[in-house]
Amino acid sequence: MRNFIQHTATFQYLPDDAKKLPYTCCEYNAALECIEQMIESIPCAAKDLQVTMDFVKGLFGNMANFACGEYSESTTRCQELGPPPKMQIPQKKSKKYETVMFVLIDLLESMKGFSLL
């Protein structure tokens, strides 16, 4: 989960606002895949894989489905988008995030013309 948070935090520095949300959605899909692989590797949890994945997806699923649209785990849009470009993050702007919500707020506020306040 920490990788998801840190990778997603870098997307606010993408120069193209139109790609910030798609990359975030693709990172979310990759995190789900990683969680599923991790659960499958734990013998006592693997038997309840679907229940556990439904729970995990339930935490952010509705928001992700609404925001991500065609950039979901059931499409090829993330493969078509390709990997995010390598970026240099200004050291003074680098933050340590503990929750996904603050990352998403900063990401949205980094988009021109978008403000939560």
Could you provide a short overview of the structure?
This protein is an all-alpha fold.
List the helices and strands and how they pair.
Layout: H1 2-10, H2 17-40, H3 43-46, H4 49-68, H5 77-81, H6 100-109
Helix pairs in contact: 1-2, 1-6, 2-4
Number of strands: 0
Separation, N- and C-terminal Cα atoms: 28 Å
Please report the number of helical segments. 6
What does the radius of gyration come to?
15 Å
Strand % is under 5%
The secondary-structure class comes to mainly alpha
Task: Please explain how this structure is put together.
- It contains six helices and no strands.
- It is mainly alpha-helical and 117 residues long.
- It is globular.
- The two termini are 28 Å apart.
- The model has no long low-confidence stretch (mean pLDDT 85).
Q: Which features characterize this protein?
A:
6 helices; globular; 117 residues; mainly alpha
